[in-house]
From TrEMBL:
InterPro entries: P-loop_NTPase, Small_GTPase_ARF/SAR, Small_GTPase_SAR1. The keyword Cytoplasm does not apply. It comes from the Eukaryota. It is found in: Endoplasmic reticulum; Golgi apparatus. This is Uncharacterized protein. Pfam families: Arf. The keyword GTP-binding applies. Keywords: Endoplasmic reticulum, ER-Golgi transport, Golgi apparatus, GTP-binding, Nucleotide-binding, Protein transport, Transport.
């Protein structure tokens, strides 16, 4: 049983964004329909890193995020999915993402 999916993207390596077919395959998996997907855009502390909007567009997720607040899954067919920009080195941003994902883990 999967409680959550965390997908880490290097926002500096924009040439590799199209390689995110693994993410598309996971999102299409019906057994993961109610599993929260946390996408972390890493290395935002470095100039020229992709913005959140650029990352969303490149991953084809611009219209699929559910918002950084709480989503009531019992009343909908919503697939919880959100992007949080972070810097692992600077220890910022990822904590908010994990808190967001945690609300869906029972």
């Amino acid at each position: 049983m999967v409680d959550a999916v965390v997908y880490l993207v290097d926002t500096l390596d924009k040439d590799r964004f199209p390689e995110s077919k693994e993410l598309a395959a996971l999102l299409a998996d019906e057994s993961l329909a109610k599993v929260p997907f946390l996408i972390l855009g890493n290395k935002i502390d470095i100039p020229y890193a992709a913005s959140e909007d650029e990352l969303l567009y490149s991953l084809g997720l611009s219209n699929f995020t559910t918002g950084k607040g709480e989503v009531n899954l019992a009343d909908s067919n919503i697939h919880p999915l959100e992007v949080f920009m972070c810097s692992i080195v600077c220890k910022m941003g990822y904590g908010d993402g994990f808190q967001w994902a945690y609300q869906y883990i029972k």
